[in-house]
Amino acid sequence: MSYAIIGFGSIGQALARAFARNNIEVTVASRRRPEDLLPQAQAIGPKVIPRTLQEAVKADVIILAVLFEGHRDVARALPDWRGKTIIDAMNTNAPVETLDGLPSSAFVARSFPGAGLVKGFNHLLARTLAADPNVEGGHRVVFLSSDDAAATADVADLARRLGFAPVNLGKFDEGGTLVQARGPVWGPLIFQDLFKQEP
């Protein structure tokens, strides 16, 4: 299984640290040239490899860590996304009417035909995401939601490999709506640093 993070801002770099900490190779890409990403990537770890967007989308599992409005630019990199798992780590405050009344990840999924799209890793602040998730005898929780059960299982497995405790909230229009960023009302609830204790 190969992995890529598209977007190398604070969230992308935080996720790259999680891969590096667990000695898992990951491609990183952004609008900047690979050589421009190299100093930051090398500072994180030798298995964080800057590549072009066209190279990054060859990965089996791709994490979207771009600004929400940039997801369509990524989607144009391939005509068909069959066989790919996309992790939507983005948040948006776009009005519901601009998303055709859909949860944001269901809206994003339209741009990646054939892919299994999973919402995940979006509720933690970058500094928390970058820190070791093994804390006080437990594991930091990441919430997942998707309409694709097989993709969710793959992402849950990755989350565990990275040291997190995955919690499946169900489909996008079920429990998954909890992690679709929508104003300040739910934010204090979902943006918490939760832990799952070892059994």
Automatic annotation (TrEMBL):
<protein>
    <submittedName>
        <fullName>NADPH-dependent F420 reductase</fullName>
    </submittedName>
</protein>
<dbReference type="Pfam" id="PF03807">
    <property type="entry name" value="F420_oxidored"/>
</dbReference>
<dbReference type="InterPro" id="IPR028939">
    <property type="entry name" value="P5C_Rdtase_cat_N"/>
</dbReference>
<dbReference type="InterPro" id="IPR051267">
    <property type="entry name" value="STEAP_metalloreductase"/>
</dbReference>
<feature type="domain" description="Pyrroline-5-carboxylate reductase catalytic N-terminal">
    <location>
        <begin position="3"/>
        <end position="91"/>
    </location>
</feature>
<keyword id="KW-0560">Oxidoreductase</keyword>
<dbReference type="InterPro" id="IPR036291">
    <property type="entry name" value="NAD(P)-bd_dom_sf"/>
</dbReference>
